[in-house]
Design brief:
The complex is a heterodimer. Chain A is α+β, with helices and mostly antiparallel strands. Chain A has three helices and four strands, in the order βαββαβα. Chain A has one domain: Histidine-containing Protein, Chain: A. In chain B, the strands form two sheets. In chain B, strands 1-8-7-3-4-5-6-2 form an eight-stranded mixed sheet. An eight-stranded parallel β-barrel of chain B has the order 9-10-11-12-13-14-15-16, surrounded by five helices. The chains are: A alpha+beta, B alpha/beta. Chains A and B meet through helix 1 and helix 2 of A and helix 2, helix 3, helix 4, helix 5 and helix 10 of B. Chain B: Its EC number is 2.7.3.9. Chain B: Belongs to the PEP-utilizing enzyme family.
């Protein structure tokens, strides 16, 4: 299991469009991809789960990946968030 | 007669068609073959996704990518493994029918989103209801009202239009839209304007008053709807409709045309807005930018100061929507004419000569001005934002504001936050003092924008709202015209842009004079833009020089007005 912290920069937080892009990235991996935020853990492969975490701009989340391709998954997710998730 | 909110201009005369759908009755039923039921559910989701995909494409080509985004969002939700997984578990675990499982799971999420209490999350709750209904209809074999098959001359009547409904509207057949819910910026309103169908929204209880086939007149410009009108009234509105269409057609020829005078002077024709949502209208009328974005709306009708992020979001939205075109944003212009308790603004004996605008902001740097300027700088990374300082009377005020901008730029540099490095900072010229000192200001500011409403008021020492003295209020008064001409000349001498964001900029009597003086930028309400373009492209600035000279030779406002009236009636 690997994990990394990252700050959400999208101005409206993790709303539908950025959440959709986050999920699409996560689905490319066999590993489980989730993130911890406040007291919840969200499944990064589910838009509803990501939306439900209610992550706002400037919030810090912790990605947790577990599986055969966990290292690559984690690096990809962090990069996607840092690049602004398509916004 | 019913009064609602005018959502899309124009007159519609036709027959009412209620497109509201009967509510689906979802019953919990026990099933015997959970695997087959699961397959039935999966088939319905697949079909729902296909239908939604087609609708999204249709909407994207007919109206625009932005409108289709809602439906693309539905696709994301329909393909969510957590959602489908939970529904499947409910089917196989509880042995219940798909319709019920869909109802239960989707409602859980809709309620969750609705309870988050933020506007975007409310939209997600609506989305959940939309996709739920779509899947259930497929499961139950219920067909939707086919809006694309409505007869010619239909007036659509509904509680509210969903994105799925609106995708099918054919503007050749639908002559009007009336809804019980919604507002100027609701989905139905935006779509009606994009399709140029007259629309009136927010008429409470309308559905119970109208039957299918009723004659309906709606005036989308006035927000008025009439059911089964008398023949004379019908004829009157038919005439109004013709006149509206004729004028519209004439002005539409000017969409996409450059604003250049006959002798080749390029003019910037831009719009005044008060809220980010107004941008849609600006783009519709082919505005070439924003000449005045008033920021007061962010501070009104609330009990606490808007945060920097909230402001940033509003400014960014406009900058992005205008896509690189200039967006002049005026910093807070507020004073004792409005009581805002949380800001410590009290009723002022003489509010327009008192503690307001830049005077107030420079006194409240830490909690008011710096957050606004920082939000503006941050937003400038997303478009062509320019900062405009209002009600400046002396150079020190501008210098102090400019120094604050520089200080904040350094702060952002240190934090590595992006902004437009060469962001322009200009002033609104609206006081007699600023006008008289325009030559001095022109050496330090990046642009002028003449605010004629206040400039006239301050120059003539007249309250336009006071009926007993309002006759003194006219931008065609020689004193005001001299002031305007002086400001334009000073700006031109230093090579800075000079614009105008008061009502005079769209006044047919004044436009010829402004062109002759050499004004670069005309900013007005979006709906006035095309008419102004028609006027400007019909003039030659060289030929107007003689007109301006003549107009400026008169001593009284009456002489100027008579002369200009005479001139425009012949041009």
């Amino acid at each position: 299991m690997v994990s990394a912290k990252v700050v959400i920069k999208n101005p409206t937080g993790l709303h539908l469009r950025p959440a959709g892009i986050l999920c699409k990235e996560a689905m490319n991996f066999n590993s489980s991809v989730s993130f911890k935020f406040k007291n919840t853990t969200a499944n990064a492969k589910s838009v509803l789960s990501v939306l439900g975490a209610c992550v706002k701009s400037g919030d810090e989340i912790t990605f947790v990946c577990e599986g055969a391709d966990e290292e690559e998954a984690l690096a990809t997710m962090v990069k996607a968030v840092e690049e602004g998730l398509g916004e | 007669m019913f009064k609602g909110t005018s959502a899309s201009a124009g007159i519609g005369i036709g027959k009412a068609v209620n497109v509201e759908e009967a509510e689906l009755k979802i019953k919990r039923e026990a099933i015997t073959d959970p695997e087959a039921e699961k397959a039935r559910f999966q088939g319905a989701v697949k079909q729902a996704m296909e239908e939604t995909g087609i609708l999204a494409q249709d909407l994207a080509t007919k109206v625009g990518e932005k409108e289709a985004e809602i439906l693309n969002g539905h696709l994301l939700l329909l393909s969510d493994p957590m959602l489908t997984g939970e529904i499947e578990n409910s089917i196989t675990g509880e042995n219940v029918n798909s319709e019920y499982a869909v109802e239960k799971v989707c409602n859980t999420y809709a309620d969750m989103f609705a309870s988050m209490g933020d506007e975007l999350m409310q939209q997600r709750a609506t989305d959940m209801h939309d996709i739920k209904t779509r899947v259930q209809k497929i499961l139950m074999g219920v067909s939707s009202v086919d809006i694309s098959a409505l007869p010619e001359g239909s007036v659509i009547v509904a509680r509210d239009l969903t994105p799925s409904m609106t995708a099918g509207i054919d503007p050749n057949k639908v002559v009007g839209i009336v809804t019980e819910l919604g507002g100027k910026t609701s989905h139905s309103a935006i779509l009606a304007r994009a399709l140029e169908i007259p629309a009136v929204v927010a008429i409470e209880g309308f559905l119970s008053q109208v039957s299918d086939g009723d004659d309906v007149i709606l005036d989308g410009s006035q927000g008025v709807v009439i059911i089964n009108p008398e023949d004379s009234l019908k004829a009157e509105y038919a005439e109004k409709r013709e006149a509206f269409l004729k004028e519209k057609k004439e002005l539409e020829q000017y969409i996409g045309k450059p604003t250049v005078t006959k002798d080749g002077t390029a003019i910037e024709l831009v719009a005044n807005i008060g809220k980010p949502e107004d941008v849609e209208k600006v783009l519709h009328y082919d505005g070439e930018g924003i000449g005045l974005f008033r920021t007061e709306f962010l501070f009104m009708d609330r009990t606490s100061m808007p945060t920097e992020d909230e402001q940033f979001e509003a400014y960014r939205k406009v900058a992005v929507a205008m896509n690189g075109k200039p967006v002049i944003i005026r910093t807070l212009d507020i004073g004792g004419d409005k009581e805002i308790p949380y800001m410590g603004l009290e009723k002022d004996e003489n509010p327009f000569l008192g503690y307001r605008a830049i005077r107030f902001c420079l006194d409240r740097k830490e909690d008011v001005y710096k957050p606004q300027l920082r939000a503006l700088l941050r937003a400038s990374a997303f478009g062509n934002i320019r900062i405009m300082v209002p009600m400046v009377t002396c150079l020190e005020e501008f210098r102090e504001a400019k120094a604050l901008v520089e200080e904040l730029k350094k702060e952002l540099d240190e934090k590595g936050i992006a902004y437009k490095k060469d962001i322009q900072v200009g002033i609104m010229v609206e006081t007699a003092a600023a006008s008289l000192m325009a030559d001095v200001f022109a050496k330090e500011v990046d642009f002028f924008s003449i605010g004629t409403n206040d400039l006239t008021q301050y120059t003539m020492s007249v309250d336009r709202g006071n009926d007993k003295v309002s006759y003194l209020y006219s931008p065609l008064n020689p004193a005001v015209l001299r002031s305007i001409r002086h400001v334009i000349e000073c700006g031109r001498k230093e090579g800075i842009m000079v614009g105008m964001c008061g009502e005079a900029a769209s006044d047919p009597m004044i436009i010829p004079l402004l062109l002759a003086f050499g004004l670069n930028e005309f900013s007005m309400s979006a709906s006035a833009i095309l008419n102004a373009r028609k006027l400007i492209t019909g003039y030659s600035t060289k030929e107007l020089q003689a007109v301006a000279e003549k107009a400026m030779s008169y001593s009284t406002v009456k002489e100027v007005e008579d002369y200009m009236r005479e001139f425009i009636s012949h041009s």
